UniProtKB/TrEMBL annotation:
Protein name: Carrier domain-containing protein
One Pfam family linked to the record: PP-binding
Carrier domain ranges (all copies): 556-631
Transmembrane feature ranges: none
Cross-referenced InterPro entries: AA_adenyl_dom, ACP-like_sf, AMP-bd_C, AMP-bd_C_sf, AMP-dep_synth/lig_dom, ANL_N_sf, PKS_PP-bd, PP-bd_ACP
Top-level taxon in the UniProt lineage: Bacteria
Length: 638
């Protein structure tokens, strides 16, 4: 059990002579500027390309002028230090907004284009959000009906909003403000059932950007992806890396998240030289030959454990990155090239060594550093650290003083990551898992208690417990075990529909089990492993040879394509009750699951279908019919 940060530190355990402590420092670093670097490029190279939005080119001068107009429109209502919730997708409008808010000194709070009405409502009830920026159709009721200021943001191009307004609703403003000096704040999963916000200073982001430019050589003439979901902090690395390097940003079409083939096509067609991507998105690419006609030189991958090294045919340098939002996007990296002797090794690579300005300490349960080679909790310090949470009590619990026995010059705080790691002799880290209940689903940190709290706000639910089931390759999915309130008999599908507005896509369970009670362990607590085992036992692989289904039943299998699609979806989601008449997303399908389904279909049949074809299909049977159509060879002469 992790000791309270306020508890007395026990005397250090003597270590064997010659056993160095698990403490490592990255190269020296000094914070620089972020906005000032962009403005310098806008002055020096005003006609250089800043954003490539399909066929439209935005120069640095164009972007600078557009941001100035938005900042002027907001200046009367948004002041330095104000939180501004941004409900936009990866688009030119998002880039203009980020620059405009930085120029105002406001705090950019990215919520994403579809954050869920109740989730936004919870944020605005807790935090002192000055306004929300986005299409009025995606805003919560209080902001849809409040005062709107139409903003001169681009409404054409990739993922552009139909209309963009600043929406004000003073009646629902919370009390928590960002600490002084914050450039942005991002939401992370909250153990209280409500998301928590962590604020980051411009100086901390600048150190990460300086590393990125130095490591990848990003420079004028290069093209940088804008691919990561807006609700997650790595998109800030993409966005500002390009704008502080004189390079061009290329917003990614939404369907590239769902289809690894479309992703590599987009890399090729847009001439990308640098990209950032989530590990689950890249994994399918490593299972097939790497495209040899890409200009991509550097690929930064993170968000989940990488399960194998890139092969010898991978022409891009791949950086396996690790970093919590509380340590400003990237804390450690391990660089891999196709020419490495270890290329193609099926063993997971390390998460690497400390970035410039980063200090790593691996500690035991009492907060004392362990010897290298021993497992422990990773604590992080240095320029990378966030200012803290907008909840001071939570900040005090997670950002603690360094161990008394360590001399760490200029390090007055360490962030407790809750991650279990091992430091090797060279100072690199191996990631071993979590110490608490927090999990990663599709590269996103999820606290099961947040999902449980979303269910328990439903009056039909007495108690909910969420567990994680993993398949043979380690991919996880959430299962909710719900005990209904007395006198109610809710349907699982109805409960899932009720929680979707509260949660990000990755946090919505793939299945709901209605239970009469929960197994308890020897301490009287819910036995989560036993619950997970029950769910696993009740989720057998759908039979592949069934041919006697009732034709009137939505599960009736008429073709090999229907069998393949239904079996694969059931396997991926762990839900044997899914029927051919179910729509993919209604059944719990996500972008990552879609990518795996499409990869399986192509591997088994040789037919390549695209994510939009899956999403546009009325149900799984219609998608299977499309597969049948593509599998059927045309008659000779047709």
């Amino acid at each position: 059990m992790i000791q309270s940060p306020t508890a007395a530190v026990a005397p250090a355990t003597p270590l064997d002579a010659g056993s160095p402590l698990s403490v490592a420092h990255g190269p020296a670093a000094e914070p620089t500027g972020v906005l000032a670097r962009f403005e310098d490029w806008a002055r020096r190279t005003p006609q250089a390309t800043a954003v490539i939005d399909r066929t439209q080119i935005w120069t640095y001068q164009d972007l600078d002028a557009a941001a100035a107009l938005v900042a002027a429109d907001l200046a009367d209502r948004v002041r330095p230090g104000d939180l501004v919730g941004v409900c936009l997708d990866r688009s030119t409008a998002l880039v203009v907004t980020a620059v405009a808010l930085a120029r105002l000194g406001a705090v950019y709070l990215p919520l994403g284009p579809r954050p869920g009405e109740r989730r936004i409502q919870a944020v605005t009830e807790d935090l002192d959000v000055a306004c929300l920026i986005g299409d009025p159709a995606v805003l919560p009721e209080e902001h849809r009906g409040g005062e709107h200021a139409l903003l001169p943001l681009p409404t054409g191009g990739v993922n552009a909003p139909a209309t963009a307004v600043a929406a004000f609703a003073d009646s629902v403003r919370g009390t928590r403000r960002a600490p002084e000096g914050a450039l942005y704040a991002v939401l992370t999963s909250g153990s209280t059932g409500r998301p928590k916000a962590v604020a980051v200073a411009e100086s901390s982001l600048s150190v990460a950007l300086d590393w990125y430019r130095a490591e990848t050589g990003l420079a004028p003439g290069d093209r940088q992806s804008l691919l990561i979901g807006v609700a997650f902090d790595p998109h800030l690395l993409e966005l500002w890396a390009a704008l502080t390097s004189g390079a061009a940003l290329v917003p990614a079409p939404d369907d590239t998240r769902w289809d690894s083939h479309l992703l590599t096509d987009w890399w090729r067609d847009s001439g990308l030289t640098h990209a950032v991507a989530a590990t689950p998105t890249v994994e399918p690419l490593l299972d097939r030959p790497w495209p040899q006609d890409l200009k991509l030189r550097h690929l930064v991958v993170g968000g989940d454990r990488m399960r194998r090294r890139p092969g010898a045919d991978v022409t891009a340098t791949v950086h396996n990155a690790y970093g919590p939002a509380e340590a400003t996007v990237v804390t450690t990296t391990h660089t891999m090239r196709g020419t490495d002797p270890e290329a193609g090794d099926p063993a997971p690579p390390p998460i690497g060594t400390a970035l410039p300005g980063v200090t790593l300490v691996v500690t035991d349960d009492e907060g004392r550093p362990v010897a290298r080679g021993q497992e422990g909790e990773l604590r992080v310090g240095g320029h990378c650290l966030a200012l803290g949470y907008l909840d001071p009590e939570l900040t005090a619990r997670r950002f603690t003083s360094p161990p008394q026995e360590l001399a760490l010059p200029a390090i007055d705080r360490l962030y407790r990551t809750g991650d279990r790691v091992r430091m090797n002799a060279d100072g690199s880290l191996d990631f071993l898992g979590r110490l608490d209940d927090q999990v990663k689903i599709s590269g996103v940190r999820i606290e099961p208690v947040e999902v449980e709290a979303a269910f328990e706000q439903d009056p039909r639910v007495r108690t909910a417990v969420v567990t994680v089931l993993r398949d043979g390759s380690g991919h996880g999915r959430l299962v909710a075990h719900v005990r209904p309130a007395d006198g109610t008999a809710p349907a699982a599908a109805d409960l899932l529909d009720a929680v979707r507005p509260w949660l990000p896509e990755q946090a919505v369970p793939t299945a709901v089990r209605i239970v009469d009670g929960f197994p308890l362990d020897a301490n009287g607590k819910v036995d989560r492993p036993a619950l997970a085992a029950q769910a696993q036992a009740q989720a057998p692989v759908a039979p592949r040879t069934a041919t006697t289904d009732d034709p009137a039943d939505a599960t009736a299998i008429a073709t090999e394509s229907e069998r393949l699609v239904l079996t694969t979806v059931r396997d991926l989601l762990g839900r044997p009750g899914i029927r051919l008449g179910d729509h993919f997303t209604d059944a719990g399908g996500t972008s990552v699951v879609a990518a795996r389904l499409l990869a399986t279909v192509e591997r088994e049949t040789g037919v390549r279908l695209r994510a939009p074809e899956l999403l546009r299909s009325t149900d799984l049977r219609a998608f299977a019919a499309l597969l049948d159509q593509r599998r059927t060879p045309r008659p000779e002469g047709a």
